[in-house]
Batch of 4 targets.
Target 1
Amino acid sequence: MEAKLMERLEAAVARLEALSACGISERGLPEIGVDVSSDPSILAFDDLMADYGARVSAAAEKIGGQVLDVTKLVLDAFSVQKKLLIEIKKTQKPDMAGLVEFLKPLNEVILKVNAMTEGRRSDFFNHLKGAGDSLSALAWIAYTGKDCGMSMPIAHVEESWQMAEFYNNKVLVEYRNKDQNHVEWAKALKELYLPGLRDYVKSHYPLGPVWSASGKKASSAPLKAPPPGAPAPPPPPPASLFSSEPPQPSSSQPKQGMSAVFQEISSGNVSSGLKKVTADMKTKNRADRTGVVSASEKETRSSSSSFSKAGPPKLELQMGRKWAVENQIGRKNLVIDDCDAKQSVYIYGCKDSVLQIQGKVNNITIDKCTKMGVVFKDVVAACEVVNCNGVEVQCQGSAPTISVDNTSGCQLYLSKDSLGASITTAKSSEINVLVPTGPDGDWGEHSLPQQYIHAFKDGQFETTPVSHSGA
């Protein structure tokens, strides 16, 4: 009996020594300094890039130019994420400041892509914007728990792609009958994330990255004071994808408007900022002032007065029932994510902006907007487009009714679940409806008639749309 017990003990010790020789600690985790590049999750990431990443790269090579440049940056961002995943297996979980510093290499690549969409609008703006917005999916690596303010990793990847899909669909529609290389690139980019990255995260990191319990500590960059006599630092860069500081509340911002005036009056120092008007500054003594108003001055005054009529930009929930999105100009990343089926969304006076509504709402109204894009999931009652010019609306879920009134130029993207929607148009022109036509993500475009023939037959008028046929 004792001999058998000794044999079992010796066998157990031999197994422990073998595990130790392979670099496995008593906790079952890789020890510091051990090469984790052969870990199954890392090898699966290599397979992801070899399959889906290679398709995007091959399609971009056929196009070249800025599309190839932005594709290389996208693949660089994935390569950086692989390096971070390797480091995570050898690093202890950091605090928020340490996490921001840890993810800094990934954020730098993302900022490079975003910089390509700034400045003069490129002919490939939709390619650049779609690629740039898609990289927010890589932020799943920053998920640290249910209280971190992010969706779960799988849901985060899917939601991030929905933001980029708006521009990706534009590429598919624009080049569908012009250049199949662009169509191939757009499809490959989508497959890189769905199903590529999504399935990878689902298989290996459904609850977020797993940090090492006994690894090295992540370092956070200390703030260094500038040396005496050094020039002032440059202004801060644009907001990055990862930030350890929450947005500043409105109460901490400097007062504006009448609040600032009353605060200045109560301080008793009202005239400190006033300038003294000398004799040569008075209008009656200035030679450059005449009684004739030039045409340029009239134009300037009219444009300034029209601008002043527009109120300040607004994106807020009013009385807990209505989301007000007003006077947004040039904002491509507007998001409403905390909504429910009892709330409505009213979009007014926006221009050259994109709004994404993540969740089911009761009603959506788009009023007096120009070059506005709206992406929503589900609507209970209706989506209404009124008094607009050049708007695009995409339904990713279901919508029983869509109405377009007094609008010039409107593109409606319908999902498979919203093909049964009732579309009503009145006093509108250039209305196109795009519907999915196949499993490859192709879109079929249908124009709604805007001219009708009314004929009196059998005691009543019969109305039929005008049909045009080419010679």
Target 2
Amino acid sequence: MELQSQFLCRLFCVFFFIILSATAAAPVTAGGWNEIPDVINNTHVQDLGMFAVLAYNNSTASSLFFYAVFQAQAQIAEGLNVRMVIQALESELPKMYKAYVWEKPWENFKNLTFFEPVLV
């Protein structure tokens, strides 16, 4: 089973790397952070943003309301790290947040690793 998980991880990483390379304007670097294009229309990135807000709410007893992800980069590292700039409503006021989500889709695993307001 462990061998199968490692194979699926590598297969996903190669697949993601190829897709990102084909759609990115700048060259993709393995292990580095790469811009995810058209995040507004990327349902997976928007779902990760919603997950980040819900996970933050659950861990802090906050009541943020997810609006949208406006910027995202990805890094392949034992899965996929995605860092995002998210807009969420707090007491009906829009605020920007930076969030990192670590994902292993072949294991149905997501973890919020970082979430904080963006200071302007």
Target 3
Amino acid sequence: MVEALIPKETGVGFRMAKEEPPSTSKDLQELQKKLSLLIESIQNNSKVVAFMKSAVGQYLDRHPFMALTVLVFVVMSAVPVGFFLLVVVLTSLAAFVGVILLEDL
């Protein structure tokens, strides 16, 4: 059934996938170059170098899974902490507005 869709002139039992245009590979090389420059600039940052020389940085460098776990924990805990702080600020504002309104009456 598939053979019926392939022209007989090709002499091939199946069609090869289209090759990517040369601009795509050039774009990928340019992207790879930009990413490598970004990583290099992060690694050469003085604060990153100082952290990596500390005891905690050395430990996390030797234990990459622990570093990933700490990173995920910090990111995931930021959302509930942010919601809590938002509730605190909104409650304080509501209390402040309530006190001002009650003082006027």
Target 4
Amino acid sequence: MLTGSILAHEMMHAWLRLKGYRTLTPDIEEGICQVLAHLWIESEIMAGSGSNAASTSSSSSSSTSSKKGGRSQFERKLGDFFKHQIESDTSVAYGDGFRAGNRVVQQYGLKRTLEHIRLTGTLPF
């Protein structure tokens, strides 16, 4: 789960470059990348809840998609811990950047937030 969140974060950096986003300040760029990592962890924790996918212990498939329906309590707690680490980071770029980015994504949505960042290089306030 931690590896996946790191990949989500790093892929967001790549996406920003591929989409032509200007050079962003570290708090904006690292913050929005941390928002994506946080969203990825949330999706992994919630994935398949209410799904008919079998749990990992009884699944005949070893695919990742079948695991999503059966997150163990340990995996959910681990995900909550990783989310907490992002939420409580004390650094300016990663911590403050995440909290500011997460606040505006909650208010305006990810798409509108990213459009605003692309146009202005700042978060909407």
